[in-house]
Structure formats: structure tokens, C-alpha cells
């Protein structure tokens, strides 16, 4: 019985770690797309630059604190 409880606690700990990590901004796809995001000092202005065509889109970004840095979401004008 003690062994089953120990396995259950370890399993719940690992599952809890995955749940907490899921709240972080998913950054694994950032390297696959050539997009550079710039947030201004006030956290409102953003420019997204597509490297192959050299297009720039302007809008606003809302930055919130994330687990491993700021989490910014782009909102076009």
C-alpha cells in the first residue's frame, strides 16, 4: 500500500509540473517562423517583421508576466 501511495504522489507531482508549465507562453514554435516582435518600453507598441518579404505590421501588444519572462500578445491596429 505504501508503494502505491508513493507512486501516486510522484505521478501527481509530475502531472502538476506539466500543468504549471502549460501556463507559460509556448516558445517552441518561435524558431520555426521568421517573426521578430518588438514591444516598446510601455508594453503597447509592437512591430512584427516577416524576414523573407520585409513586411512590417504595426499594432499593440499586451505584456503580462509569465513563468519564464514576459508574455506578449499582438493585437493589430
From TrEMBL:
Protein name as catalogued: EGF-like domain-containing protein
Annotated coiled-coil segments of the chain: none
Keyword Ligase assigned: no
Span of domain EGF-like: 61-72
Highest taxon above the source species: Bacteria
InterPro entries according to UniProt: EGF
Keywords: Signal
Residues making up the signal peptide according to the UniProt record: 1-22
Phylogenetic placement of the source organism: Bacteria, Pseudomonadati, Bacteroidota, Bacteroidia, Bacteroidales
